Amino acid sequence: MNTRTILTFILSLSLFSCLDNIGQKTANTNLESPHLEEEMDFKYWTWITADPDRDDASYRDEFEKYAGHGLDAVLINTNADPVLLGRLAPLAKAAGLELHAWLMAMCRPGDSVVRQQPDWYVVSREGNSAFDHRPYVDYYEFLCPTREAPRQHVLDLVEGLAKVKDVASVHLDYIRYPDIFLPIGLLPKYDLVQDVELPEFDFCYCDVCVAEFEKTHHKNPREMDNPAIDMEWKQFRLNKIREVVDLAYELAHENGKRLTAAVFPYPEMADHMVRQRWDKWEVDAVLPMIYHQFYEEDTDWVGFATAQGVQDLEHTTTELHTGLFVPGMEAEELREAISQAKRNGAKGVSFFDGPALSDEMLQLIRDSK
Ligand SMILES: [Zn+2]
């Protein structure tokens, strides 16, 4: 296989598992959790997906392997299950790892509550609901961030995870609209050219969004010749995602936890691709997915995108830790990507995903501590 074929193969695999990353209230209001406050020079994280059928011993081994090679934190997707998260939390703690509750927020594939509610789903400019017309892939079950009920459902999931003992943060993933523009490396797979905002990938034009927008701005996005150039309509959608994040931040903090998020590479790019403007959010740390392979870029782009985000967060308290996509990378390339992140102001790097880290990579991570 030539390089491009290999890349396409990797990306097509990854799309189904992770276009983003896949994908106590009351008493405890103490944010002085000892492992959050530890000074760490450069932090190493990894995303992993939990399997409820695996036994504790196998998780203990996995966590010890990470901790023994210098990793500091794991972000665990339990499919929003606080019971499974509660089972894994003491195991991670015993291994000396910080634990983060990774949640697919606005995209909820297979969520049995969501499936009962067709009108919770986003609606495209063509008028199709993601309930039965999914953009790109079948797991794209995106919810409308404007409607009260789906928003509350997501916040309830945040709260459930935030109540689990020994969780450092709730980690929002898919905290955005469906991609209006896909990463350039993924376009051939769908045989798509996206040089304008295409109506089938443009969301959300549901009755509630349109009515709320019209009330404030006295214009109807369904009637616009070119909604892509209407700044208020763009801003409305950026603000809707931001509102969910800011409410999640409050909930996490009320429960003595932090809020972190997996986001697109840098703010303007995230805005352009998925209506996500993360430099304006209330969030303790962002882990931008600076997956250079998806954008047909070299490792120096990891440095560029990291620097861009760090600069945009300059006047905030939000930390930036660079996310790296490991499958298909050689150890040497990973070393260079880590170095690019470090040199450009990241506070750490996070690897997608844990099982993709080879022995050689784990070695270099340990040696770099
Ligand atoms: Zn809507």
List the helices and strands and how they pair.
Elements: H1 3-18, H2 34-37, E1 43-49, H3 56-68, E2 73-77, H4 82-95, E3 98-104, H5 112-115, H6 148-162, E4 169-173, H7 187-190, H8 207-217, H9 231-254, E5 258-263, H10 267-274, E6 285-288, H11 300-312, E7 319-325, H12 331-343, E8 348-352, H13 359-367
Parallel strand pairs: 1-2, 1-8, 2-3, 3-4, 4-5, 5-6, 6-7, 7-8
Helix pairs in contact: 3-4, 6-9, 11-12, 12-13
This protein binds zinc ion.
How much strand content do the residues show?
A: 5-15%
Structural class: alpha/beta
Q: What are the distinct ligands in this entry?
A: zinc ion
Mean of all residue-level pLDDT scores: 92
Q: Which strand order do you get reading across the main beta sheet?
A: 1-2-3-4-5-6-7-8
* Oligomeric state: single chain
CATH architecture grouping? Alpha-Beta Barrel
Rg over CA atoms: 20 Å
Assign an overall shape.
Answer: globular
The first-level CATH class is given as Alpha Beta
Relevant terms:
binds zinc ion, 12% strand, single chain, globular, 369 residues, alpha/beta, 8 strands, TIM Barrel, disordered N terminus, eight-stranded parallel barrel, 40% helix
Summarize this entry quickly.
By secondary structure, the protein is an alpha/beta fold. The protein contains 13 helices and 8 strands.
